[in-house]
Amino acid sequence: MNTLKTLLASAAAAAMLSAAGAAGAKELRYAHFQAADLSSPKHAAALAFEGCVEAKTSGAIDVQIYPASQLGNGAEILEGLQLGSVQMGVVHDGPISATYKPFSVLALPYLFDDQAMAWSIVDGPFGEALFEDMRAQTGIRVFALADNGVRNFTNSKRAIASPDDMEGLKMRVMTAPVWVRLVESLGASATPVAWPELPGALQQGVVDGQENGVTNILNASLYQHQSHVTLDGHVFSWHAYMMNDAFFESLEPAEQTAIEQCVVIAKTIHRGMTAAQDANATTLLAEKGLTVTPLSPEQKAAFRALAQPAVREFIVGEIGEEWPDRLDAAVDAYRAQ
Question: Which site from 146, 210, 241, 319 is most exposed, i.e. has the minimal number of CB atoms within 10 Å?
């Protein structure tokens, strides 16, 4: 926490530095959806990015952070990034897959063994190729991915220890069809609900449950209207650090370098905070009153046997074989090391 306080102080100092020359500064509107406090990985990372960029550019870039969906939901932020009305956004994977379909390849369930494996693959040649294709197709530059948490199922009805326990449950999913296929392959019904509307949907009983990482469950108080969580870790979910490509290209080379370097710092903070919460999921969620159901490797295999082929078939139907095959090759290469 002392480190985060230092980052906050640095951000404030950088803001004061930039104020003197604000008239000539390049405004960088930075949007994310988590709460504006240091317990939120997205916001802690955003403050670090702000302080870093404004210090490295001597205030030539003025970073303005808009947390808590102030500039809209994920789809609206992506539209803003394409139009240039938002210069930078950190958006979760569901809306990205709706804007750039190949991103849905990362929704293949029960694929990565742990964070080290997942990070290595998205930071390596596979991730670089995917991001460049997205930039070329959408005009949105992806710098990096940070953890949106290992996704687990919560619900208000019963413990889930096998796919049979999913039968009859109404589960909220993100607003992209691949997530519908995932949940339906396990026997539950799927209802797409945008992130800002999710707490209300749980409170009003529109859905029985949802699937998210520990960070989001805690940050949005999703546990308040849920009684069970199953630690199945079906998908390593992501937040993408993105920028309007035309804005980035308009910057001076030294400013571009500052942006890239400061994203590395933000990504590292974001990943570390989220991974720590995932590692302590049982304690953190039990403290919030949830009954926690861990799964053995054999139990998880039963979920994988149903979900992975169904989701892969759907993804291939949407985007073809190229990106699933590339991801499979990256996984195989990692395991062969």
Answer: 319
Cross-strand pairs, 88: 30, 243
For residue 59, how many other CB atoms are within 10 A of its CB? 21
229 in Cβ contact with 293 (< 8 Å): yes
Helices marked H in the chain — which ranges? 2-20, 41-56, 74-83, 93-99, 115-123, 125-138, 177-185, 198-203, 214-219, 245-250, 253-279, 281-287, 297-319, 322-335
Distance of alpha carbon 249 from its chain centroid, rounded? 25
Overall number of domains in the chain: 1
Distance between CA atoms of 110 and 236, rounded to whole angstroms?
8
Owning domain of residue 7:
2-335
Coil/strand/helix, residue 45? helix
Residue 66's domain is classified under what CATH number? 3.40.190.170
